[in-house]
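tool=predict chain=A
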Amino acid sequence: MGYAKNGWLYKEKTAGYIFSAPFIFGFLFFVIVPVATSLYYAFCNYNILKPARWVGLKNFIDIFQDPTFYKALGVTLKFAFISVPLKLVFALIVALILLKGTKLTPFYRAAYYLPSILGSSVAVAILWKRMFAVDGLVNKLLGIQFAWLGSTTAALWVIILLAVWQFGSSMLIFLSAMKQIPPELYEAARVDGAGGIYTFFRITLPLLTPTIFFNLVMQLINGFMVFAQGQIITDGKPMNSTLFYVLYMYQQSFEYSKVGYAAAMGWILLVLVALFTGLLFKTKKYWVYE
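tool=predict ok
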């Protein structure tokens, strides 16, 4: 028994290997292997029913000659660059309102955070689709008969509105960051006669810039990957006005059986996200207070 307790099974290093093994194998087989496989398929003509055939850069050449690719990319960029700033602005405003604690503050925080949990679900997307239908709740409240989801200009704004409604996670992050600001700064500002607007732009906002940067990066990445809302609410219609990049990639893979083409689109998306993220980090020093 004494030998067994001194053996390799009782060493702390062995216990570490045992407890980390599920994550290591899961990461290997469910992340690394699929990523490597998709990279291989990006250079192949593959449609699930037939073996993959190496075609080199053909998929990438076809993508950059596809006008629908540029349409989907433009729709996604427009969605991300509009919805993300609006979401962060609303999140910051609500966080400022909830900063002052009351008995109902925990309830309000949970209520505002709930859309972030439910917003990407199929049920909420279907509900949103019904709300903006011609005979839906929105038209009844406004007293009009307008095809929101049938308009090439309004359909995208319906989905943007759904994305902005999911500001709860950013709001909680802002709220947590504002609670870390030393109250002595506000007391000193009040002694000097500074008002609420002045203290917000001179104290609160500068000290929140690292949190704003974090939220901006995370929400921008999520904006590029929008899929469920576009598929369920409009399916990319009308006239591809809501055809998001990931939705088009999904259609190429599962509707047109062009898996290699879709894999190549996925890697192009990865490069685009990396470029925009790198640009944000490159310009961080000019507006983030550290």
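Residues 44 and 55 are 5 Å apart (CA to CA). DSSP finds 14 helices and two strands in the chain.
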